[in-house]
Amino acid sequence: MEIDELRQKRLNELRTRQNQTAKTEADEAAAAERINAMLHQVLTDDAYARLSNIKMAHAERHQAIVQSLLYATQNARVKQKITDEQLKQMLVKLMPQKREIKIKRIQKRDRDG
Questions:
Q1: Which tens digit of pLDDT belongs to each residue from 54-88?
Q2: Which domains occur in the chain, in start order?
Q3: Of 39, 62, 87, 102, which residue is least crowded by CB atoms under 10 Å?
Q4: Are the C-beta atoms of 39 and 69 separated by less than 8 Å?
Q5: How far apart are the C-alpha atoms of 83 and 65, rounded to whole Å?
Q6: Is the dihedral of CA 98, 96, 39, 25 positive or negative?
Q7: The dihedral sign for the CA sequence 39, 40, 42, 46
């Protein structure tokens, strides 16, 4: 009798965990859909296409740009659609500055000659 009770308890735990996972996935999908809808509203078609390409190539840069756009939209800083050129300018500002590296070669002198 105890084995059946343990099995039933374990089965209930697994079902609960599965339901929680499904709910979490549904919430994440809904949030992603809201973000995409907002991006379509504030970006021109060219800018949205560029952002999609960035998502495939540089996920972390895409995330930074989306966060920036969400912040600007929520604070009513976006008054018109953002063009491709404006998006490029935002990307340049968000990209880390590259440091110039110089390598000096130091030649050893022959002590024997």
A1: 889 888 888 988 988 888 888 877 788 889 998 88
A2: 2-94 (1.10.8.140)
A3: 102
A4: yes
A5: 14
A6: positive
A7: positive
